[in-house]
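Example 9 (inverse folding). The structure is encoded as follows.
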Protein backbone atom coordinates (compact mmCIF):
# COMPACT_ATOMS: atom_id res chain seq x y z
CA UNK A 1 0.00 0.00 0.00
CA UNK A 2 2.89 2.31 0.82
CA UNK A 3 4.18 1.89 -2.74
CA UNK A 4 0.76 2.62 -4.20
CA UNK A 5 0.46 5.79 -2.19
CA UNK A 6 3.87 6.93 -3.31
CA UNK A 7 3.02 6.20 -6.98
CA UNK A 8 -0.21 8.12 -6.69
CA UNK A 9 1.54 11.08 -5.10
CA UNK A 10 4.03 11.18 -7.94
CA UNK A 11 1.24 10.85 -10.46
CA UNK A 12 -0.66 13.70 -8.85
CA UNK A 13 2.42 15.93 -8.85
CA UNK A 14 2.78 15.28 -12.60
CA UNK A 15 -0.91 15.94 -13.25
CA UNK A 16 -0.75 19.19 -11.32
CA UNK A 17 2.25 20.29 -13.37
CA UNK A 18 0.40 19.50 -16.61
CA UNK A 19 -2.66 21.39 -15.44
CA UNK A 20 -0.51 24.41 -14.50
CA UNK A 21 1.11 24.41 -17.95
CA UNK A 22 -2.30 24.16 -19.63
CA UNK A 23 -3.64 27.03 -17.55
CA UNK A 24 -0.64 29.21 -18.39
CA UNK A 25 -1.12 28.63 -22.12
CA UNK A 26 -4.84 29.32 -21.83
CA UNK A 27 -4.15 32.55 -19.92
CA UNK A 28 -1.71 33.77 -22.59
CA UNK A 29 -4.19 32.91 -25.33
CA UNK A 30 -6.90 34.84 -23.49
CA UNK A 31 -4.57 37.84 -23.22
CA UNK A 32 -4.02 37.76 -26.98
CA UNK A 33 -7.76 37.50 -27.58
CA UNK A 34 -8.45 40.55 -25.44
CA UNK A 35 -5.73 42.57 -27.19
CA UNK A 36 -7.15 41.53 -30.53
CA UNK A 37 -10.64 42.59 -29.42
CA UNK A 38 -9.30 45.97 -28.32
CA UNK A 39 -7.63 46.41 -31.70
CA UNK A 40 -10.89 45.58 -33.49
CA UNK A 41 -12.64 48.16 -31.29
CA UNK A 42 -10.19 50.91 -32.30
CA UNK A 43 -10.45 49.96 -35.98
CA UNK A 44 -14.23 50.14 -35.75
CA UNK A 45 -13.89 53.58 -34.16
CA UNK A 46 -11.77 54.67 -37.14
CA UNK A 47 -14.41 53.34 -39.56
CA UNK A 48 -17.11 55.26 -37.71
CA UNK A 49 -15.06 58.48 -37.75
CA UNK A 50 -14.38 58.01 -41.47
CA UNK A 51 -18.12 57.64 -42.10
CA UNK A 52 -18.79 60.81 -40.11
CA UNK A 53 -16.21 62.72 -42.18
CA UNK A 54 -17.82 61.48 -45.41
CA UNK A 55 -21.23 62.66 -44.18
CA UNK A 56 -19.78 66.09 -43.28
CA UNK A 57 -18.06 66.35 -46.68
CA UNK A 58 -21.31 65.45 -48.43
CA UNK A 59 -23.20 68.11 -46.48
CA UNK A 60 -20.45 70.63 -47.27
CA UNK A 61 -20.61 69.88 -51.01
CA UNK A 62 -24.40 70.28 -50.98
CA UNK A 63 -24.14 73.61 -49.19
CA UNK A 64 -21.47 74.86 -51.59
CA UNK A 65 -23.65 73.94 -54.56
CA UNK A 66 -26.59 75.76 -52.96
CA UNK A 67 -24.33 78.76 -52.35
CA UNK A 68 -23.36 78.90 -56.00
CA UNK A 69 -26.96 78.56 -57.20
CA UNK A 70 -28.03 81.34 -54.86
CA UNK A 71 -25.16 83.48 -56.12
CA UNK A 72 -26.43 83.04 -59.67
CA UNK A 73 -29.97 83.95 -58.61
CA UNK A 74 -28.71 87.07 -56.81
CA UNK A 75 -26.87 88.19 -59.97
CA UNK A 76 -29.99 87.55 -62.07
CA UNK A 77 -32.08 89.65 -59.73
CA UNK A 78 -29.55 92.47 -59.79
CA UNK A 79 -29.76 92.46 -63.59
CA UNK A 80 -33.57 92.49 -63.37
CA UNK A 81 -33.46 95.49 -61.07
CA UNK A 82 -32.25 97.62 -64.03
CA UNK A 83 -35.47 97.04 -65.93
CA UNK A 84 -38.20 97.08 -63.30
CA UNK A 85 -41.31 99.11 -64.00
CA UNK A 86 -42.90 99.55 -60.59
CA UNK A 87 -41.65 100.39 -57.15
CA UNK A 88 -43.50 97.36 -55.77
CA UNK A 89 -41.64 95.06 -58.12
CA UNK A 90 -38.38 96.79 -57.21
CA UNK A 91 -38.99 96.32 -53.45
CA UNK A 92 -39.92 92.69 -53.99
CA UNK A 93 -36.74 91.87 -55.93
CA UNK A 94 -34.66 93.80 -53.42
CA UNK A 95 -36.14 91.73 -50.57
CA UNK A 96 -35.54 88.47 -52.42
CA UNK A 97 -31.92 89.48 -52.96
CA UNK A 98 -31.47 90.37 -49.27
CA UNK A 99 -33.06 87.07 -48.21
CA UNK A 100 -30.77 85.18 -50.57
CA UNK A 101 -27.71 86.93 -49.18
CA UNK A 102 -28.80 86.18 -45.61
CA UNK A 103 -29.35 82.51 -46.42
CA UNK A 104 -25.93 82.34 -48.08
CA UNK A 105 -24.28 83.87 -45.02
CA UNK A 106 -25.86 81.12 -42.92
CA UNK A 107 -24.67 78.53 -45.42
CA UNK A 108 -21.12 79.90 -45.28
CA UNK A 109 -21.15 79.74 -41.47
CA UNK A 110 -22.34 76.13 -41.59
CA UNK A 111 -19.59 75.28 -44.11
CA UNK A 112 -16.98 76.74 -41.73
CA UNK A 113 -18.45 74.71 -38.84
CA UNK A 114 -18.38 71.56 -40.97
CA UNK A 115 -14.74 72.14 -41.89
CA UNK A 116 -13.86 72.53 -38.21
CA UNK A 117 -15.78 69.35 -37.42
CA UNK A 118 -13.91 67.49 -40.18
CA UNK A 119 -10.57 68.69 -38.82
CA UNK A 120 -11.48 67.50 -35.31
CA UNK A 121 -12.59 64.11 -36.69
CA UNK A 122 -9.32 63.77 -38.61
CA UNK A 123 -7.35 64.46 -35.41
CA UNK A 124 -9.33 61.71 -33.67
CA UNK A 125 -8.56 59.30 -36.50
CA UNK A 126 -4.87 60.08 -36.15
CA UNK A 127 -5.05 59.33 -32.42
CA UNK A 128 -6.92 56.06 -33.00
CA UNK A 129 -4.47 55.07 -35.74
CA UNK A 130 -1.56 55.62 -33.37
CA UNK A 131 -3.22 53.38 -30.77
CA UNK A 132 -3.87 50.75 -33.45
CA UNK A 133 -0.26 50.84 -34.55
CA UNK A 134 0.93 50.32 -30.96
CA UNK A 135 -1.67 47.61 -30.36
CA UNK A 136 -0.62 45.79 -33.52
CA UNK A 137 3.01 45.94 -32.48
CA UNK A 138 2.24 44.61 -28.99
CA UNK A 139 -0.05 41.95 -30.42
CA UNK A 140 2.70 40.69 -32.71
CA UNK A 141 5.10 40.60 -29.77
CA UNK A 142 2.54 38.78 -27.60
CA UNK A 143 1.83 36.22 -30.30
CA UNK A 144 5.54 35.57 -30.80
CA UNK A 145 6.03 35.17 -27.03
CA UNK A 146 3.07 32.81 -26.69
CA UNK A 147 4.17 30.73 -29.67
CA UNK A 148 7.60 30.35 -28.10
CA UNK A 149 6.07 29.49 -24.73
CA UNK A 150 3.63 27.02 -26.29
CA UNK A 151 6.31 25.18 -28.21
CA UNK A 152 8.43 24.97 -25.05
CA UNK A 153 5.42 23.71 -23.14
CA UNK A 154 4.56 21.20 -25.82
CA UNK A 155 8.09 19.80 -25.79
CA UNK A 156 8.10 19.67 -22.00
CA UNK A 157 4.59 18.22 -21.89
CA UNK A 158 5.40 15.25 -24.11
CA UNK A 159 8.29 14.42 -21.79
CA UNK A 160 6.04 14.81 -18.76
CA UNK A 161 3.34 12.66 -20.36
CA UNK A 162 5.81 9.84 -20.96
CA UNK A 163 6.82 10.04 -17.30
CA UNK A 164 3.14 10.08 -16.33
CA UNK A 165 2.46 6.94 -18.31
CA UNK A 166 5.15 5.01 -16.46
CA UNK A 167 3.76 6.17 -13.09
CA UNK A 168 0.20 5.34 -14.13
CA UNK A 169 1.32 1.84 -15.19
CA UNK A 170 2.79 1.29 -11.72
CA UNK A 171 -0.65 1.23 -10.07
CA UNK A 172 -3.57 -1.13 -10.72
CA UNK A 173 -6.23 -0.14 -13.22
CA UNK A 174 -8.90 0.06 -10.54
CA UNK A 175 -6.79 2.32 -8.34
CA UNK A 176 -6.00 4.53 -11.32
CA UNK A 177 -9.70 4.74 -12.11
CA UNK A 178 -10.46 5.72 -8.51
CA UNK A 179 -7.69 8.33 -8.56
CA UNK A 180 -8.93 9.82 -11.85
CA UNK A 181 -12.53 9.93 -10.72
CA UNK A 182 -11.70 11.72 -7.42
CA UNK A 183 -9.32 14.09 -9.21
CA UNK A 184 -12.04 15.09 -11.66
CA UNK A 185 -14.56 15.69 -8.89
CA UNK A 186 -12.21 17.26 -6.35
CA UNK A 187 -10.50 20.10 -8.17
CA UNK A 188 -7.45 18.10 -9.30
CA UNK A 189 -6.60 16.83 -5.85
CA UNK A 190 -7.20 13.08 -5.33
CA UNK A 191 -4.60 12.18 -2.74
CA UNK A 192 -3.98 14.37 0.30
CA UNK A 193 -1.83 14.26 3.41
CA UNK A 194 -3.26 14.07 6.91
CA UNK A 195 -1.40 16.08 9.50
CA UNK A 196 -2.41 16.55 13.13
CA UNK A 197 -5.51 14.43 12.53
CA UNK A 198 -6.78 16.86 9.85
CA UNK A 199 -7.42 16.02 6.18
CA UNK A 200 -5.49 18.57 4.14
CA UNK A 201 -7.99 18.28 1.31
CA UNK A 202 -11.07 19.47 3.18
CA UNK A 203 -9.50 20.53 6.51
CA UNK A 204 -11.88 18.38 8.54
CA UNK A 205 -10.80 16.28 11.51
CA UNK A 206 -10.80 12.57 10.85
CA UNK A 207 -12.03 10.09 13.48
CA UNK A 208 -9.23 8.78 15.79
CA UNK A 209 -9.82 5.14 14.78
CA UNK A 210 -9.41 6.04 11.11
CA UNK A 211 -6.27 7.98 11.97
CA UNK A 212 -4.85 4.90 13.71
CA UNK A 213 -5.63 2.81 10.64
CA UNK A 214 -3.96 5.38 8.46
CA UNK A 215 -0.75 5.19 10.54
CA UNK A 216 -0.58 1.43 9.84
CA UNK A 217 -0.31 2.18 6.10
CA UNK A 218 -1.69 -1.24 5.17
CA UNK A 219 -4.84 -0.26 3.28
CA UNK A 220 -6.27 2.54 1.19
CA UNK A 221 -8.27 4.96 3.33
CA UNK A 222 -10.50 7.73 2.06
CA UNK A 223 -11.50 10.87 3.91
CA UNK A 224 -15.05 10.43 5.27
CA UNK A 225 -15.85 14.05 4.34
CA UNK A 226 -14.24 14.74 0.93
CA UNK A 227 -13.57 11.09 -0.09
CA UNK A 228 -10.02 11.87 -1.17
CA UNK A 229 -7.39 9.18 -0.66
CA UNK A 230 -5.39 10.02 2.44
CA UNK A 231 -1.84 9.30 3.52
CA UNK A 232 -0.17 9.97 6.82
CA UNK A 233 2.40 12.69 6.89
CA UNK A 234 4.53 13.52 9.88
CA UNK A 235 5.07 17.15 10.80
CA UNK A 236 8.73 16.99 9.74
CA UNK A 237 7.85 15.54 6.31
CA UNK A 238 5.59 18.49 5.73
CA UNK A 239 8.41 20.99 6.16
ZN1 LIG B 1 -11.09 15.40 3.37
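The amino acid assigned to each position is listed next.
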Amino acid sequence: MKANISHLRELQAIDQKISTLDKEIAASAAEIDSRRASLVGHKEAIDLLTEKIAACEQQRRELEAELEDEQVRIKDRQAKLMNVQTNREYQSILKETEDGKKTNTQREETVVQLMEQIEALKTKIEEESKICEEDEKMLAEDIAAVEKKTSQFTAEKSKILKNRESKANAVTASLLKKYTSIRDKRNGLAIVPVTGGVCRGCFMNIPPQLYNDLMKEDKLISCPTCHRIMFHQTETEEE
